[in-house]
Write a structure and sequence with these properties.
The chain is of the alpha+beta class. Helices cover 48% and strands 18% of the residues. Strand 8 and strand 9 form a beta hairpin.
Length: 374
Amino acid sequence: MDLSLLTYYFILPLLQYFKELLGSYGWSIIAVTIFIKVILYPLTKHQTSSMQKMQAVQPKIKILQERFEQQKERYKDKPQKLKEAQEEFQKEMIEFYQKHQVNPMGGCLPMLIQLPVLIALFWAFNGSPFKPLAITVPVEILEKNETLNQEMKGASNPAIFVGDHGKKGRIVLNPGDVKIPVDKELSYKLVKVDGNIDSALGKVKWELSDKPVYVEGYKPKDIDSYADLSVVDDSVLIMTKKPGRIFLNAILPADSENESFLFITGLGKTGAIDPVTKQINIDVVVLVLLFAFTIWLSGSVTAKSSPPPADAKQAEMQKMMQQVMPGMVGMMTLMFPVPSGVLLYFVVSGFIQALQTWMIMRIPAKLNNAVAKV
């Protein structure tokens, strides 16, 4: 499944619609996040309710497990008896789940259904127009005697670019993965697969690199010894000089990278430290702290609305995770920076998630025959 199509045909039109309605991409990100969370609320409710039911029956499950542990100890020298006890335990567990109408995997399916939408959302906020679009293809330069003809392998994978006034398109770099001998010339060009961004293709910036992923501001060493790069209109020519493996980057700008919103000075700003000025990006740090707070808030709401685990060790571990998880998530977000627009989405989504969890879990789980004896 190509999730970029979900981003292109669903998420990005939503972003543009709310931008035109509300006046900025900042409000648009908030509106789209709310819209998606509302649409997915039935799945969230099902997932949270399943978790509630599992927590409610944990004491009874623990009794069954302890009973089986006693049988394991009793029949440890009697393999046949142990096998029979294990089969009986599995049968009792199945009957128990059926009687109480509890599915231990009930929370997994809604999560799997939501995952493609969440990935598409992340791609939309982590890409154009908030972050420069870089299409990268490998170029393998061979010795003269290895081959006489260049070998072209189709085009790159389609990438989404959003330009001025919501114009967007899916574009490829043609050719894609290439093998070519020394002292040969090769022409590359961006080609539109679909969309309405013909004029935007002239904004492309071309770079050679020794890395398979484009890193803004990175200056590769001795890359000029492998090939020369010359720009001709909206295409580029590569003249190979030395055997090796290099990468061509076609970079299109992020038109909304520097758009401000509330205290955020740029929705495309990435990282707690500005790579140019080396100053702290206070707005990014605040967003990360708010995101960590939403993690703590959701965990707190869940803990207060759930019965304490029957096992003391499990209860202690749950408490520790609730305290440690927000800090861990915050540190990971700082270590693997994402644009401010993505952090804004995380923060809004986190607050909505905490609210939805509270709305669902304030009502005790309804179990069938919940008071029946095990």
